[in-house]
Amino acid sequence: REAMKSYPFSKYNEEYQMIILRARFEYAERSTLGTQPERYRMVLDEYFNYKNTFPNGKYMPEADRYYKKAQSKIDVLPS
């Protein structure tokens, strides 16, 4: 995230955002059951951030998979 702030017009911003999305997902996966719902919602936030910034991005299929997995986890986890 710091790289995106320091270099807002970098040609690597799409990659940076995808790395953040992957990291959020992995963080949610490794979290305790009590914190997982909140962390999966953070994955959804990052997904929409990526989708709004790069609607036709080269990582969109991967981002969609993370979105679907996170949404399905939120649906079954206790809030």
Short structural summary:
The protein has helices at 2-6, 13-29, 36-53, 60-76.
Explain the layout of strands and helices:
Blueprint: H1 2-6, H2 13-29, H3 36-53, H4 60-76
Helix pairs in contact: 2-3, 3-4
> Largest sheet, described in full?
none
* Number of E strands: 0
Low-pLDDT runs of 5+ residues are: none
- Structural class assignment: mainly alpha
- The number of helical runs is 4
Mean pLDDT: 94
Overall 3D form: globular
Classify the helix fraction into a percent range: over 70%
Rg from Cα: 13 Å
**Span of the ends, CA to CA:** 28 Å
Helix and strand succession?
HHHH
Structurally, the number of domains stands at 1
Strand content: under 5%
- Assembly state (oligomeric): single chain
